[in-house]
Amino acid sequence: MAGSEAILVTGGAGYIGAHCCKALSEAGYVPVCVDDLSTGNRDFVKWGPLVVGNIADTALVRDTIRSHRIAAVMHFAAFSQVGESVADPQKYYSNNVGGTLSLLAAMREAGCDRLVFSSTGAVYGTAGRDPLPEQAAGSPVNPYGASKWMIEQILADFRRAYQLNSTCLRYFNASGAEKSASIGEFRDPETHLIPRAMMALQGHVQDFAIFGEDYDTPDGTAVRDYIHVDDLAAAHILAVEALLKGSIGGCFNLGTGSGFSVRAVVAAIEAAAGRKIPLVVKPRRAGDPPFLVANPSSARNALGFRPVSSDLATIVTSAWAWHQKAHPAR
């Protein structure tokens, strides 16, 4: 049990950040959210104070760390749409890399030296059909993944030069919703497969599409490793507690080691909802690899991470419960 240490959560009003704030609160910490609400949801900030602002405001972040006596930082604030990153890379490098440098400057000025970073499986790029170990990283195929890879290198340099210890958690496909359906996956615009499919079922999306059915996969659609957001949140608690106990950090995959194709996910959603999803098939999107599955053994061995809610049925049913509650059908 943590006592009452405060943890700064950048992007804590977003989908994954909010789930981690809930997990922090349940573990005895005080999550202090910094979010500019450009994509976050104010209603998702339920477990601690909200500071409205952008991490590019170094003074704001520094003063927040000092005033709340922050023990460590969880860093989620970033742009994350692959297609948009290909069309507008400057936006992604300026926000993701530049914003992180500003955050790190604020941490150093305030004397805070522990960070858990929200990284991504996109740092691997197109890396073959086998589950990926951490050593395979470094070949991203889109600016979003490249921005996260750059940040990982920056954090390694800061660890060596300034003893600012960090753990990079490389998410694969975050999915699902909190078990009481009080928070879930919500963006505007929504780009992710599971919520868009559910929004199509509810009549909120009229152009739901599968992008590419000519990949070298069993059914021609892209294969991904889906991990429940509650399992992601649990991994963040393990990571921050390791840092607080003196770990210098490292890089770890957060996935299950198994993949599902787009068609398989769509079929699972249709089974949960009891009806077909209206869809069209469109060409592949730029920057999408055919196969992306984690080897999660390092996180299991070093952090004790074991996903317990990441079977596809639990992911889909929890997400469907959230969507039915939050976005009733038209």
Task: Write out key terms for the chains shown.
330 residues; alpha/beta; Rossmann fold; UDP-galactose 4-epimerase, domain 1; 7-stranded parallel β-sheet; 3-stranded mixed β-sheet; 10 helices
Low-pLDDT residue spans: none
By CATH, the architecture of the largest domain is named: 3-Layer(aba) Sandwich
Determine Rg (CA atoms, Å): 19 Å
As a percent range, the share of strand residues is 15-25%
- How many structural domains in the coordinates? 2
User: What is the overall number of helices?
Assistant: 10
What is the mean pLDDT? 93
What would you call the shape?
globular
- Sheet bearing the most strands, described? 7 strands, parallel
Structural class: alpha/beta
Task: Give an overview of the whole structure.
- It is a single chain.
- With 330 residues, the protein is α/β, with parallel strands linked by helices.
- The protein folds into 2 domains: 6-174 and 226-254, NAD(P)-binding Rossmann-like Domain (Rossmann fold, 3-Layer(aba) Sandwich), CATH 3.40.50.720; 193-224 and 257-294 and 307-326, UDP-galactose 4-epimerase, domain 1.
- It has 10 helices and 14 strands.
- α1 links the parallel β1 (6-10) and β2.
- The chain is globular and about 55 Å long.
